[in-house]
Design a protein that fits this description.
Elements (H helix, E strand, L loop, with lengths): L5 E5 L8 E4 H7 L8 E2 H9 L12 H19 L4 H19 L12 E10 L2 H11 L5 E11 L1 H5 L7 E5 L6 H8 L7 E4 L5 E2 L3 H11 L4 E7 L4 E2 L6 E3 L11 E3 L5 E3 H6 L9 H11 L4 E10 L10 E3 L23 E8 L3 H12 L5 E8 L7 H8 L4 E6 L5 H7 L8 E4 L5 E2 L3 H12 L3 E10 L2 E3 L11 E3 L3 E3 L18 E3 H6 L9 H19 L3 E13 L15 H18 L18 E3 L2
Parallel strand pairs: 4-5, 4-7, 5-6, 9-14, 16-17, 16-19, 17-18, 21-26
Antiparallel strand pairs: 1-2, 2-3, 7-13, 8-14, 9-10, 9-13, 11-14, 12-15, 18-27, 19-25, 20-26, 21-24, 21-25, 22-23
Helix pairs in contact: 1-3, 3-4, 16-17
Length: 613
């Protein structure tokens, strides 16, 4: 076997195959690992791979890299040589390998021309204001919806743009700040993105297109760029930066950004509670977002021309997050007026009535919302007649029984015809919803004008989980479970699971329009990847998401969960086949416009589910 990286080869012996150390793997983790050896068949698969140098899609290397990073971390800990720098490097290698295992480098093409709400506050009319407005209306590759906010006497200039279909005028004579105007006008927005436009700034013709492209390519929540004047360009950085956690910044590399260039997600603004009611709202907004570890991406490009001595938008220094930092109450968002929330919740179960009782308790303890619970016995192995009869007496619970075990997703589809409210929510039978889950989902969907909501889960139960693997030949290795898992904004160029399905809430009309959950033709394959397929169908169709960082569901870790059991869990044949179907469907979605209902299975198993009276 000719490989420049193989060394220290141990020949095969009785009961074991040939193994070797890999110089490339050890170079990537930055240390020797004498106790990590690669089987010969893995080396052969690596040599035969013809997919280029990318980790994505490689048959064995990401898995090997994941394992050696863990081994190196354990070795350094035991030897007392683990420094903070080495730990950051090994964690970075681990995350890179995990990303390669769980995502694929497909390019997600926008389903339509992007659009963006733009807020411009002005106190007086002048030629510079006119030029600023024109620079937004003449943006290339993006449809701007421009909100002109008169905080003084800017009507003369604003009158010149009256009658434009994408220009809306607002009057706020109190001289409100730009972000306060966003807060007040949040329900008047048309899109899922919001941009700040200074009254004395001239945006480049591609400002919004570049901003949105970088924001969506990196799955960020806030974008900022550089500014320039007619005499000099102010570009303090030579490469783009994404600020997320304390690992991104050190005391020596704090970053400055100019809030005149901000573009951010509408739902992130809502999730943060809007403005904080402090003197400099823009500074507060960015600092709060950074302390909450929201992803902020900064471009090295100068996209707005400002006057040389403008004082409207002082730069913001984004410093490292210090351990023990606590967000002051004074910097918390003021929030928005509560809107009424009504939601149908679907709770299918197959045995484990003790778990179901806890799930029901969590739902019945929901605060500030009206809910209808659809409790479905999905052909449990034990007799559930008394259980269903007991819960059927509750005024907010509707009970059903499946004649055969069809799984949670088809069970969900089957009760859509019985929904009584505009929203519907997933409730896994082994999880527990926290009291504010459905109320907060309703607020986010309303103020973000979104169709799908997802949030964060807190894990409890078993202390260890099976590490993600994707073939039956890989060993099932246990690793400590994480404390929380967050939904996140999908990165352009990746496909996979990005929204924690146990927290999902949908608009019913949207769910019906997309044809409901899919059917892969097998209950176990459905259990493995149907939620991922639905998320990709939503994404490529251009559906709006509202993602929250709030912890709203307690996710139970146990051996019979979808990712951990021996029938649909990591490395099983069912999950492998489901992944192949998912890849095939994403390939179809990538080609261009498609009919999403054709890929759903709403009503396909309608005759299986019967009302239990």
């Amino acid at each position: 076997m000719q490989c420049a990286f193989r060394f220290s080869i141990q020949p095969a012996s009785s009961g074991s195959s040939e193994t070797a150390r890999c110089r490339l793997l050890e170079q990537m983790v930055g240390q020797e690992c004498e106790n990590f050896r690669v089987p010969a068949d893995a080396c052969t698969a690596c040599l035969q791979h013809s997919g280029g140098q990318s980790l994505h899609g490689h048959p064995v290397f990401p898995s090997m890299l994941l394992q050696i990073s863990e081994t190196a971390l354990e070795n350094a800990t035991q030897q007392g040589t683990l420094t903070p720098e080495k730990e950051r490097r090994l964690n970075g290698v681990f995350n890179t390998a995990m990303e390669a295992l769980t995502t694929s480098p497909r390019q997600i093409q926008p389903s339509a021309t992007p659009s963006c709400d733009v807020i411009l506050c002005a106190h007086e009319s002048n030629e510079r204001l006119h030029a600023a407005i024109v620079s937004i209306l003449e943006q290339e590759g993006v449809v701007p919806f421009l909100h002109l906010v008169d905080t003084g006497d800017a009507s003369r200039t604003f009158n010149e743009f009256s009658g434009r279909w994408n220009v809306r005028r607002h009057r706020q004579p109190s001289g409100t700040s730009t972000l306060a105007a966003v807060h007040e006008l949040i329900e008047s927005m048309s899109t899922s993105l919001i941009a700040i436009q200074p009254a004395d700034g001239i945006s480049t013709s591609d400002r919004l297109a570049r901003s949105i492209n970088q924001l969506e390519s990196e799955g960020a929540e806030i974008f900022a760029a550089q500014v320039f004047t007619k005499t000099s360009a102010l570009i303090p950085m030579q490469t783009k930066e994404t600020l997320t956690t304390d690992e991104t910044l050190t005391d020596e590399n704090s970053r400055q950004l100019n809030p005149a260039t901000l573009v951010f997600r509408r739902c992130s603004f809502v999730d943060m509670g809007g403005i904080a009611g402090v003197e400099n709202e823009l500074v507060s907004f960015v600092e709060r977002a950074h302390r909450q570890q929201r992803r902020i991406t900064i471009s090295p490009e100068a996209l707005i021309e400002l006057l040389p001595k403008t004082a409207s938008f002082p730069s913001i220094t984004v410093s490292p997050i210090q351990s023990g930092d606590i967000l002051p109450d004074s910097e918390s968002g003021k929030g928005f007026p509560a809107v009424p929330v009504e939601v149908d919740v679907v709770l299918p179960f197959h045995g484990h009535l003790d778990y179901v009782d806890q799930a029901l308790e969590g739902l019945l303890n929901q605060e500030r919302c009206k809910l209808v619970i659809h409790l479905i016995d999905d052909a449990s192995p034990e007799d559930t007649t008394d259980f269903l009869r007991h819960w059927s007496k509750h005024c907010d619970i509707r009970t059903y029984r499946n004649r055969e075990n069809i799984g949670q997703f088809q069970s969900f589809n089957n009760v859509v015809r019985y929904f009584e409210t505009p929203l519907c929510a997933v409730q896994d039978a082994d999880d527990i919803s926290l009291p504010n889950r459905l109320w907060w989902a309703g607020q986010m969907l309303h103020y973000s004008d979104a169709d799908v909501f997802g949030a964060t889960v807190e894990l409890f139960g078993d202390e260890h989980v099976i590490r993600p693997i994707f073939t039956s030949t890989e060993p099932r290795v246990l690793e400590p479970r994480v404390k929380i898992r967050r939904s996140f904004f999908p990165l352009r160029g990746r496909h996979g699971y990005f929204l924690e399905n146990p927290t999902a809430v949908f608009r019913v009309d949207m769910f019906k329009m997309l044809g409901g959950f899919a059917d892969f033709g097998d209950r176990l394959m459905n259990r493995a990847s149907i939620d991922s397929e639905f998320q990709q169908r939503l994404l490529f169709h251009g559906t709006r998401f509202a993602i929250s960082r709030e912890v709203l569901v307690k996710y139970r870790v146990h051996p019979e969960s979808a990712t951990q059991d021996t029938q649909s869990g990591w490395g099983t044949a069912a999950r492998t086949k489901a992944g192949q179907i998912l890849d095939a469907r994403v390939s179809i979605f990538e080609r261009g416009p498609f009919d999403p209902r054709a890929f759903g299975s709403l009503g396909r198993y309608q005759n299986v589910t019967e009302r239990f009276e």
